[in-house]
Amino acid sequence: MIVLPARAWAWLRATMVRRVGVGLAIVGLLVVVTVVATRDGSEVTAANPGTSTTDEGRSTGESAGKASTSTTTTVAPTTTDTAPTTTTGPTTTTGPTTRTGRTTRTGPTTRTGPTTTTATPPSPGPTTGTGDVAAPGTPAPTLPPAPPAGSLRFLPEDTPDNGSRAPLTGLPVPDPGLLGRPALAVKIDNLDIDGETARPQTGLAFADVVVEEVVEGGITRFVAVLHSTDSPEMGPVRSARTTDVHLLPAFGRPLFAYSGGNPGVLAAVRAAPSIADRGGEWAPAYARVTGRRAPHNLYVRPWEIWARGEGASAPPALGGFRPRGEGSPVGEPVTGVNLAFNGVASAPVSWSWLPEEGRWLRQQRGSVHLDGAGYAIGPRNVVVMFTDYVASPADPRSPEGVTVGGGEAWVFTDGKLVRGRWDRPTEGAPIALRDGAGQPISLSAGRTWIELVRPGSAGVVG
């Protein structure tokens, strides 16, 4: 047995610790380099009428340049939109953080068994998607201050009653002949971080229904569904996701306008029997505008898409609408709701009730959400659909919102919250909203926004 002096043992131990630390640092560096190098996949445009250019990489932004008018070209991506390293807004949490309800998916891409989600509730809010109440001592929930009454402009909904009723709004339309045309769903950009934003988007206020869904990094995008109202150019237009493939058949067989997608997404859109694919960057329907940086500069002309509406169909009714001016007979009075999308590039959202306007005002990152024409986003109804997000079969790094099956729903209408469920047994079925007694939930006549959020990521402000 070899006996070393105490000072020798101390030197030996220190040397071993230094060498182990260096080795761990090298291993960590290799892991980071590997993750960054393999994070992104590329996307290509859909093959459709006209010509097209290369679309965005899933995490690298859409291509620059104007719509092609001849052969297909490849343009290098110029910006990132899915994995920024900055965060926006507070991310503190209140209330319970577990989800007790379940959502299941049925239909063509059925998952085996129910899925459950544990999510972090937004700040602030005493209730979450589970309906649980926060622990005593939780600070009172707040909303961003609303502008003074009368200081906001909203898209008018003043067409006199003439016997017509739009299926997605319950409102009369000036030209009842428009009701026979198909819905047009446009995929709209909503990146909103320090130093880069897609706001203000053009045409959002004109959509009958808007669905907000999560993509990579907690960024959200909108599916703006036009039908009863003509719109100016809409945009910025961005790429499709597999969430859209399963969501859009709820609106009949709509036309779908988007900039492109990765090969798996494009294949899924083309194979979908209930989607009339009008994606890709082709003239004269799509054009790049000056004054905005790519990828936030691609816009679509809805009238050009509607002119190529073959194979699409009119939408079914979104739900039962109450006559204009008639209040909801059920529900608890509330002042709003806060939403969190829990990602490195997510933007916190709130909806506040404006009783003098009879609308829910949208604020994002603490400021009023305006569209490009200066109209404030203020639908008559906001539906919070709690659902799971699973890995997309087209790219496991991309989330896919589950919209077939069922789950908890909060319906904000007429200044009240009606708690219930959303149900959609098949992809071909519309979304049904029912209260706790199983009765259909009526909506105020007007426009509706639908929020696809993970369980536990919404907080009611009473």
Strand count, sense and closure of the main sheet? 11 strands, mixed
The run of helices and strands is HEEEEEHEHEEEHEEEEEEEEEEEEEEE
Shape: globular
Tell me the total number of β-strands.
24
Mean pLDDT: 79
* Parts with pLDDT < 50 across at least 5 consecutive residues: 1-5, 14-138
Helix content: 10-25%
Helix/strand-derived category reads alpha+beta
Query: Termini distance?
Result: 76 Å
Radius of gyration: 24 Å
Helical segment tally? Answer: 4
Share of β-strand residues:
15-25%
What oligomeric state best describes the polypeptide chains here?
A: single chain
Question: If you had to describe this structure to a student in words, what would you say it looks like?
Answer:
- Strands 1, 4, 5, 6, 7, 11, 16, 19, 20, 21 and 23 form an 11-stranded mixed beta sheet that branches. The protein has a 5-stranded antiparallel beta sheet with strand order 15-14-13-12-24, with no helix packed on it. Strands 2-3 form a two-stranded antiparallel sheet.
- 11% of the residues lie in helices and 23% in strands.
- With 462 residues, it is α+β, with helices and mostly antiparallel strands.
- The longest helix has 33 residues.
Briefly summarize what is shown.
The protein is of the alpha+beta class and 462 residues long. The chain contains four helices and 24 strands.
